Amino acid sequence: MAKQFDKKELKKKSENLSDWYTDVILKATLADYGPVKGTMVIRPYGYALWEKVQEIFNGMIRPAGVENAYFPLFIPYSLLEKEKEHVKGFSPELAIVTIGGGETLKDPLVVRPTSETIMYEMYKKWIHSWRDLPMLINQWNNVVRWEKRTYLFLRTTEFLWQEGHTVHETEREAVDIVMKALDWYRQVYEDYYAIPCVLGRKSESEKFAGAKATFAIEALMPDGKALQAGTSHNLGQNFSKVFDIQFQSREGKMEFAWQTSWGLSTRSLGGLFLVHGDDSGLVLPPKIAPIQVVLMPIMRKENDSALLSAYCGEIKEALNNGGVRSKLDDRTETSVGRRFNEWEVKGVPVRFEIGQKEFDDRSVTIARRDTGEKITVKRENMLVTVEKILKDIQTNLFAKAKKFLDENTRDAQNYQEFKNIMATDRGFIRAFWCEDAACEDAIKKETKATTRCLPLHAKEEQGKCVYCGKPATHRWIFAQAY
User: Fold this and answer.
1) DSSP code string of 405-445
2) Per-residue pLDDT tens digits for 400-421
């Protein structure tokens, strides 16, 4: 007989975040370790979250004219080599196939680390005139980057993501889509994950290999480390010149196209789990939760089951008709206490407890996952009450995360302050930086903090670099990153 789940076995987030994180992912049946080192198997409950992300994101990009497509997993190494900065940036992480069908390949194949090169080889064939533009394509796929240190969801050798790749007549159009994609990511995190973010431009050393400029959203995790939550790149004409993506302009001249790429991956789910979980397990924001309400019939006598089941079925139907994602857990082989524990660990926002008393009173007892509060309401008030509770949970989780972000974003006036913060609470540090790569590199080596971004609309100020003391005009965000 399979061992039943016992919440007492779950490690505590308050004692060791890292141990809790791995433990809760396994016990909540989100994912498991794959047979190949550094890979993971995403289980149905975890994949349901990713499907929800796909649904949300597709709903954002389609009105903007972006279409989904699919490109091959294998990329000829010769294509990757065309953009020297690009291949240099990915070289340490490449998985390369040298034998196929029992024969040594003349041109080795790279297992897709990202799709710029394979897609742009095709774009060259498809784009001839300004009438072919803009080309707005996104794909949902897997990529492989050979990581030395892996961490479920946050950093795995193979992961899932979406990657958008667009082509435009003008740089202005390209920049518009770069910023639009960045705001789509902000919406995913803030409106659905309930995680506040800082939006900004990456430094030259931190930007995407081959890009003209990279923009990112950065989120702060409970251990004071930053998570690069999504990136959007202005590729300029760097790739179009390498791959000869030219079009005849409206004036009849041949011009190189302007391009963008942008991506959000399953690592975002890792951030979701870290930010909102507690000692009892996950706490999922209602907007992203695959199951928003779990219905728990509490049977006292066997002869009560038929009527109680019918009552629970009626409530479930009302929830579904009202657009609330629900699940009926009417298992009898597992005790009520263990079932409560299982759904707490899975982070379902709301639990309905329905026993003989609720049946007799035509009521339902509602328990909130985020606060543990319980209320009993009449059946006719059930739907409007739970809708209000779900909205309140979503708002409450965001407010809690925003408070943490604000309290853990600090100004460092000098390098000693900077080092003290990094040696204690970490978090986001605002500090002047002269934008010299040598200072950036030295700070990273001495404190593990990297430039996360220059916030959008950061005001120009007169200051001194936190490291070297030279004149600086902007306060950048620094943090230790995952």
Assistant:
1) HHHTEEE-SSHHHHHHHHHTT--EEEEE----HHHHHHHHH
2) 999 999 999 999 999 999 999 9
